[in-house]
Specification:
By secondary structure, the protein is of the alpha+beta class. It is built from six helices and four strands; from the N terminus they run E-H-E-E-H-E-H-H-H-H. Helices cover 42% and strands 14% of the residues.
Length: 187
């Protein structure tokens, strides 16, 4: 029996997550993450998306994408399908890599978009995988603060414009914004 269609808009800005089947790892090595980013780049181009942020964890991914056309499901099917085929071929595996269909949450305000941009890059910090967002090489954080070259698919203009007009100052303010998200109030 086919799945029921999604009851969400198919275009707009979305926080997308996809998890490994049975919460298993979807990345065995750095080369796997590089291949995922390669397929993400082609998905962004092919489906005319804008990617504002991303983070590749061990067993799931976070994407913050804007889809001007109604092609979210088609694009995610292409991205996850291509990656799964490649992953299984390179590692001599078969079967499902991802658990069910991807999850998507509509981003309904600029405030929500900013909070998600921070939440996504802080995911490895909150999971105890690193001490600071800058320590995790598999997210958009490094490119957003100018520490690494931005992948061609990553759009930073809107995000950084929310933190200032001068690029260096905007990057520093964004870094402080992200860092402030790691501060927890004491009980």
């Amino acid at each position: 029996m086919p799945r029921a269609p999604r009851l969400r808009p198919a275009n707009g800005i979305f926080h997308i997550t996809s998890r490994g089947n049975r919460r298993q790892s979807i990345f065995f090595e750095d080369a796997d993450r590089e291949w995922f980013l390669y397929f993400l780049e082609h998905t962004v181009k092919r489906f005319d998306w804008t990617c504002h942020a991303y983070c590749l964890m061990d067993n799931h991914v976070h994407l913050l994408v804007e889809t001007p056309k109604e092609n979210l499901s088609e694009g995610m099917q292409w991205l996850l399908g291509r990656y799964a085929l490649d992953f299984n071929w390179r590692h001599g595996l078969d079967g499902h890599l991802f658990q069910g269909r991807f999850k998507s949450q509509v981003v309904d305000s600029n405030w929500h978009l900013l909070e998600l941009a921070r939440y996504i890059v802080l995911n490895p910090v909150r999971a105890g995988m690193c001490a600071a967002a800058a320590d995790w090489p598999w997210s958009s954080y490094g490119a957003s603060v100018g520490a690494t070259d931005a992948p061609t698919f990553l759009a930073l203009d809107w995000l950084l414009s929310q933190f200032g007009r001068q690029p260096d100052a905007a990057r520093a303010t964004y870094a402080a914004f992200v860092s402030a998200g790691t501060i927890r109030a004491s009980p």
